[in-house]
From TrEMBL:
Organism superkingdom: Bacteria
Keyword match Endoplasmic reticulum: no
Pfam families assigned: Methyltr_RsmB-F, NusB, RsmF-B_ferredox
Organism: Alkalicoccobacillus plakortidis
Protein name: 16S rRNA (cytosine(967)-C(5))-methyltransferase
Role, per record: Specifically methylates the cytosine at position 967 (m5C967) of 16S rRNA.
Record GO biological process: methylation
Broad enzyme group: transferase
Single GO molecular function: methyltransferase activity
Amino acid sequence: MGKTVREAALDVLVKIEKNQAYSHLLLNDTRKKAGLDRRDSALLTEIVYGTIQRKLTLDFYLQPLIKKDLKKLDTWVLVLLRLSIYQMVYLDRVPERAVVHEAVTIAKYNGHKGISGMVNGVLRGFQRAERPSFEDIQDPIERLSIETSHPVWLLKRWISQYGQEETRAMCIENLLPAPVSMRVNQTKTTRDDLLLQLEKEGIEAKPAELTSEGIIIEKGPVFETEAYLQGLMTAQDESSMMVALALSPEPGMDVLDTCAAPGGKTTHLAEQMNNQGSVLALDLHPQKVKLIQQQAKRLSLSIIKAEAMDARKLVDHKELYDRVLVDAPCTGFGVLKRKPDIKWAKSERDVTQIATIQADILAAASTCVKKDGLLVYSTCTVDKAENEETIQAFIQNNPDFSLDETISERLPKHIVSKRLNQGMLTVLPQDYQSDGFFITALRRNS
Ligand SMILES: C[S@@+](CC[C@H](N)C(=O)[O-])C[C@H]1O[C@@H](n2cnc3c(N)ncnc32)[C@H](O)[C@@H]1O
């Protein structure tokens, strides 16, 4: 017999807790192996992401009901309690009785009678007891940390960079579901025509607010539609769509995308060029290069050539490209809605380490830009050490580049007036419910 949704959720969460494995890869794997239907698949994702997303709050609820330090519990028992409490607090459609019953059954199967008795006692105790109040936590940062489940060190960084109010708004936004947004392949169709076709295929969708190429999927299995299979659209977050707008490649140009997999922005660049010119897409990992090739094929974009290469070693491409994109590897603190495990997997040391890699990639990529050409640097993090500070250091060391203030003409007006600061754009998740992103353009002086 296959695993139930909750057993599968327990397996995935224990692996993540023990190995810091990435949730989306494990989830994909588990969905396939367990043979779950669409509804159960959605419930599995919701339980796994929700439990990771709310970890500190769930532990805050659990601690008074457990006599010892939570860390002393077996990992699987702690995770089982967390995922059960998550369902009881946040999922209205699951009856509490069923949650307790299934948790006790899993505990019996995995452990001994004592453990199933303890799980039963804790969950029934939780049903009966009044929930502890966040108001009782004296320290304001700790309170925000527990209430919104973000690590204290990260909150301290954000508060020093954005202030209390923006940080609180960001934390609250991070707990909400991420919208499903798609980018229209403008070499094949228009946004209006695509919306009509999707309606015919039973998908509820509407035009996106931020960009003219975006649509938001409200309901329906969009990846199974003919429209998707025919390459009329690509899944992409709306903030991420602005990167190609900032780079604005024209048909016939030579373009280099240095950190390209899985190809979301590469394909956008080729679409903007109406599939005329050339786009060289590089990525460090050979297995990821295949993903770029698959997307280029699905979207019928023949000008893309994808290769495995470490962008820090770009030495033979001197001043060859009109446009160069560095969509740098980063901590991902702008995408916590989609990848909540990042909150727990990354540390302050990772920020420093990745900033060094970003600076090295940027320096190597810059040598490839033609005179008067454009270099765009973007990340999906909101940490200034990976963004503004990287760019400021680059400009100091490279006086032949300057911030391109005309970026404001290429980006949506409302976001420019709100968030563009000295040629550098930071979109926060609470602005448009899209990902937190940083985008800036540098011009090589002629
Ligand atoms: C933010 S992701 C890129 C997302 C991609 N631009 C898109 O829109 O689909 C960063 C990518 O950089 C790649 N990467 C990391 N270090 C690299 C390096 N030294 N050279 C080239 N690519 C690198 C990672 O494998 C990852 O795929």
